[in-house]
Every structure is written in structure tokens, then in C-alpha cells.
Design goal:
CATH architecture: 2-Layer Sandwich
Structural class: alpha+beta
Helix content: 25-40%
Number of helices: 2
Largest sheet: 6 strands, mixed
Order of helices and strands: EEEEEHEH
Number of domains: 1
Number of strands: 6
Mean pLDDT: 88
Strand order of the largest sheet: 1-2-3-6-4-5
Low-confidence stretches: none
Shape: globular
Strand content: 25-35%
Length: 139
């Protein structure tokens, strides 16, 4: 629906004793996700676009840092995995047809590097996709 207001969801979660703030906004031409574990602050902005080849059916994810720390590979991993999960969700609810507008990710995470970060990573991504699914229902 052109001209409609964006759907927006904002929630806070306690993950491994760290407050995690997530905002998901769905606009007509893009998805915006803000993810912060640093008191609501955002440090890095990344843009992710998804291209699907009509020749061989392959999918390519393009990630570019727009602002902030360009040297943290974890931010790129979050952006790539988030885009892939949203793309797969859209494909599952659209009867196998996949489409996904560009995703703008604003992210701020504490420095860590512990092994327990892997379950935290998956938990955060699961929550974002769950919120995305809820936001799509609001449209």
C-alpha cells in the first residue's frame, strides 16, 4: 500500500544479563532494524541488498558499511545472517517466491569474543526475525 505509515515494533530483552533493545521498522521500500546492547546507542550502520540471478537462481548478499566501525567483521556477519533469515522468512510465507527490500541495520554490541556469544548471536537473530514477522502482520 503506497503512502501507508511504516510498521514499527520496539522491544527490550534481557539476554545473558545484557539489556538488548531491538526496533524493527518496515517501510514501503526498505526494512530498518536497530539492535543495541549499549544502552540504546547505535554505533554502526550497514546496508544489505539481496540479488537473485534469473540465470542460475543463485542469491547474492551485498553488505556495505555506511557509518561507523568498518573493521568489525561481526557486524557484517549479523547483517548477512539477518538478511538471509528475513529473505527465507519472506520466501516461506510467499509460497516459494522470494523478495526482500534492502535492509538498513544499525548495530551496537559490546566487545566480547567468548564462546557463549554463539547462542546469544542466534537468540538475537531469532528475536529480530520474530519481530519482523509480527511487524509484517501490522501492515
Amino acid at each position: 500500500m503506497q503512502g501507508a505509515l511504516p510498521s514499527c515494533l520496539q522491544k527490550s530483552f534481557l539476554i545473558e544479563k545484557i539489556q538488548t533493545d531491538i526496533i524493527v521498522q518496515i517501510f514501503a521500500d526498505r526494512i530498518v532494524v536497530f539492535l543495541s546492547q549499549l544502552e540504546g546507542k547505535i554505533g554502526t550502520y550497514l546496508s544489505t541488498t539481496i540479488e537473485e540471478s534469473i540465470i542460475d537462481g543463485s542469491t547474492t548478499f551485498h553488505i556495505s558499511s555506511l557509518l561507523g566501525n568498518r573493521d568489525d567483521p561481526l557486524h557484517n556477519v549479523y547483517a548477512r545472517q539477518l538478511a538471509e533469515r528475513i529473505w527465507k522468512y519472506n520466501k516461506s510465507v510467499n509460497g516459494g517466491l522470494s523478495s526482500c527490500p534492502p535492509i538498513l541495520l544499525g548495530i551496537a554490541l559490546p566487545k566480547s569474543g567468548k564462546k557463549q556469544d554463539i547462542p546469544v548471536f542466534h537468540r538475537i537473530l531469532d528475536l529480530v526475525v520474530q519481530m519482523y514477522a509480527e511487524a509484517t502482520q501490522l501492515q
